[in-house]
Amino acid sequence: MAEVKHEVKRAVGPASVAWITLFGALIGVTALIPIFPYVGGGGYVPLATPFGAMAPMLLGPVGGITSSVVGGLIGMFLAPGAFPLGLVDVGLNTVLPAFLVSLIILNTRYWKVSVPVAVVIGLFGALFPFYIPGAAAGFDRPQEPLYTILASIYWLPSLIILATPLGTRMIPAWLVSGDRRLKYTGIFLAFLTAMWLWWNPWSKIYWYLFRYAPALGVATTIAYLWWIPALALVITIITMPLLEALGRSGLPKVGDALW
Amino acid sequence: MRTVFHYIERDTFVHRLHPMVKLLHILLTLGLIVVPYWPTLRDLAALLVWLGLNAVLGTVARLSLRQFGFLAKILLGTFLFILLTQGFMYRGETPLIILGHLAIGGGVDLVITREGLFFGIILCMRMLTAVSALPLFVSTTPVSSIMAVLTSLRLPPTFSFMFVSALSFTSMIFEMWSTILDAQRLRAFDIESMNVFRRLSRAYVPVLTPLVLMLFRKGNDLQIALEAKGFGAPGPRTQLEVLRFTWRDGLAAAGLVGVFVLCLWIKYA
Hints:
The complex is a heterodimer of chains A (259) and B (269). Chain A has 10 helices and 4 strands. Chain A is mostly helical and 259 residues long. A two-stranded antiparallel ribbon of chain A has the order 1-2. A two-stranded antiparallel ribbon of chain A has the order 3-4. The longest helix of chain A has 31 residues, at 48-78. The radius of gyration of chain A is 19 Å and the shape is globular. Chain A starts with 10 loop residues before the first strand and ends in an 11-residue tail after the last helix. Chain B has 2 domains: 13-141 and 247-268, no CATH class; 147-228, no CATH class. In chain B, 69% of the residues lie in helices and 5% in strands. Chain B has 9 helices and 2 strands. Chain B has helices spanning 13-16, 19-34, 41-60, 65-89, 114-138, 143-152, 157-186, 196-228, 247-268, and strands at 95-102, 108-113. In chain B, 35% of the residues are buried. Classes of the chains: A mainly alpha (259), B mainly alpha (269). The interface between A and B is large, with 67 and 72 residues.
């Protein structure tokens, strides 16, 4: 009698379903913890955003993005104050950081995807909402060339990193390097590249919904200049000991993860 | 750290509703808040009608006002920010409060306009409408019903499992978090007495690192339990809870769509 074999699905990508589930739950819970107030006051950036960003480094890109989706959905229900736009904020607060960090981890193979993504995000950041939809939706034009120069800080360096050997070879190699200094430099640069790009959709959808005046847009762009490097630094500070601890824990390693 | 929105077991009309109807309510809410708004009474009225519906559903479900008070407290800063920025910057013509005159360039009047303030109020209502809808789902629907409805929506079973399990694991994470905090406090490391900058630089790492390690170790046990119970095995699946869509659910869904259409009519007619 022929033996019948069935494949049992127990993982998403290289990471196990259980790890993704539990890390997703952790991302959801961390939505309750504020780490940065919004510039200008009001709501807060939850700890879930750094955890979404670091998920691909701990669970591999596929597992990390999946856990960020699960965690974002959980966070939306646990901490609606951190996700005022519901599903849209799930995408912006947890999934997008995980996706962008994944692109950088995989940039040796997928630069043909990451470079166009950076260009699209750059165009979105430069044009939305003051030029597109612009006057049709009641938005005035900002002071130029000041606004375009300021806006380009949030996407042009990332595009340059992703399209040059720094992003296509060096950073992905540093991320898996045995030299700790190189590895941590790579992790910081990966987060910085990803979070600069992330800021464009994350902030500008709110500008559209809250009808930002051009002057407020320019002021906000200036106010966040220090904020993205600071956020990248905080994520790096949290990620480094986690990677070290996981590396020494004896737990089974996840493929494409950085420990 | 504790969650304010979790399932509260009660026997009310909202609790008994099919989860699909409650999901419909969330989708309609999102639909209503993403359309563009202008500072008109009609736009405000449309939002207030939906907000009123949420309040009625919350009352019927006997949800505590304290929970929503907590939410309002979090959002208060956002609301103040929106009201101020819109008050100053929206292109209004009717001055409400004149704060002064800045001698910059040709001179700028610091004026809060009536139109700006009104538009700010509309934006706040829009946010409050969205945020008040989510607890109605999570506080009135047991995890098993969420699982059943996700399965009936034909979502991948692995994803449904992960979502529902993660939702139920949150309380375990709170316990672990609390245990680690207590352990660190015994070592004279008290996070709650630290300011925000000290927390960012020093506090989270000694708590989060053991938390993630403990979680991953638990994850190994969970994976073994899953495999022992045949998770991911091929073949037809059975469900613990089979939900039935009754005429009451149909009526409730029609009612929600009716109020949604009414809101759009108020806004656009």
